[in-house]
Amino acid sequence: MKLYNIAVVGTGAVGSTILQVLEERNFPIGSLKLLATKNSAGKILNFKGKEYTIEETKKESFIGVDIALFAGGKASEIYAAAAADMGVIVIDNSSFFRMDKDVPLVVPEVNPEAVKKHNGIIANPNCSTIQMCVALKPINDFSRIKRVIVSTYQAVSGAGQEAMDELVDQTKEVLSGKKASVKMFQHQIAMNLIPHIDIFKDNFYTKEEMKMTLETQKIFNDYNMKISTTAVRVPILRSHSEAITVETEEKITRDKALKLFEDCDGIVLQDDPINNIYPMPFFTSNTDEVYVGRIREDLAFDNGLSFFVVADQLRKGAATNAIQIAELLVRENMVGVK
Predict the structure, then answer these.
(1) Structural contact between residues 53 and 44, judged by C-beta atoms closer than 8 angstroms
(2) pLDDT digits (tens, 9 = 90+) for 8-21
(3) 196 is known as an active-site residue
(4) Which one of 21, 73, 155, 170 is least enclosed by Cβ atoms within 10 Å?
(5) Catalytic residue, candidates 127, 187, 196, 264
(6) Does the active-site annotation cover 240?
(7) CATH T-level assignment (fold) for domain 4-124+318-331
(8) Residues 253, 254, 260, CA angle at the centre, nearest 5°?
(9) What is the spatial distance between Cα 176 and Cα 200, in angstroms, rounded to a whole number?
(10) What is the pLDDT of residues 115-150, one digit of tens each?
(11) Cα separation of the two ends of the chain
(12) Whether this model's pTM surpasses 0.85
């Protein structure tokens, strides 16, 4: 088996999950570099029973690397293009390259053919976009989706480890009768919902909401697909949920939708309302699939369908999707081709 030289850039929540998924999926690694900021350099991480020392990220760090998995953040802006110029294939989790017309935005279950158009950089979509697109794919394949209305219920881990710690701390404070200490979010998140993720744009949608709209159109290569998003932060530690309504050109019955979802790679169908079986964050954390349930013919549109989608945003929404892209490149024999 051919082995590949891998660099993981960033060792926070996403970077650590990338290492976990690489090990679980037994990706064919020849050598491994762990790169991060100067503050993290020198720390030791374990991978497959071997200790690795984190190195400070520099341009020369990418010499001899085949695939660099960027966990996101400022490093992508500083080093990704330089790494690509050295012949490295960069798979980037940041938002920096996603809307670049020369950079493919890839969800392997949805648009795997897009990887063939890369010029050294492949963008990983927003976590909420990824799980929605996986769920939209079988519907759109059967009948083109004209309109999407989605409300997200996003876990605090989407804002990092400090946000998770704040939810836990605030919950303890509130339950003990104390005032919650607010640092990471605009308001107290414990026992609350915040309909505000990222900054507001001129159209009064947030940047997070517009990411889902623009990225989904790019992934499906359908800029006439109308998408309206409301992104909400909820007091859940892990796994994002989405309530989605679509309007299709042809009517899709509930029974047909069940069959479409059941036959789709990467989707776990959980739809047995009589027995209270439907997707929930508590049961889907630390998994790689997209869970779909609560499927029903929508009452507002003649050709409408509504359903509920849940996925672990650190895994399928980031690390796993990135590694699936790397696996796709390996299968297509696209790594090491200069």
Answers:
(1) yes
(2) 999 888 999 999 99
(3) no
(4) 73
(5) 127
(6) yes
(7) Rossmann fold (3.40.50)
(8) 90
(9) 34
(10) 999 999 999 999 999 999 999 999 999 999 999 999
(11) 20
(12) yes
Radius of gyration of the chain (CA): 20
Q: How far is CA 98 from CA 5, 129, 176, 214, 215, in A?
A: 25, 12, 44, 9, 7
User: 118, 133, 240, 264: which one is catalytic?
Assistant: 240
The whole-angstrom separation of Cα 44 and Cα 276 is 45
The token pair at 133 is: 């697109």
Which of 3.30.360.10, 3.90.1150.10, 3.40.50.1100, 3.40.50.460 is the CATH number of 129-313? 3.30.360.10
pLDDT digit string, tens, across residues 140-178:
999 999 999 999 999 999 898 899 999 999 999 999 999
Task: Render 127-174 in DSSP notation, one character per residue.
Answer: HHHHHHHHHHHHHHHHS-EEEEEEEEEE-GGGG-HHHHHHHHHHHHHH
Three-state DSSP state, 315: helix
Cβ contacts of 24 within 8 Å, gap of 6 or more: none
Residue type, 80: A
Tell me which residue of 336, 327, 335 sits closest to 26, measured CA to CA: 327
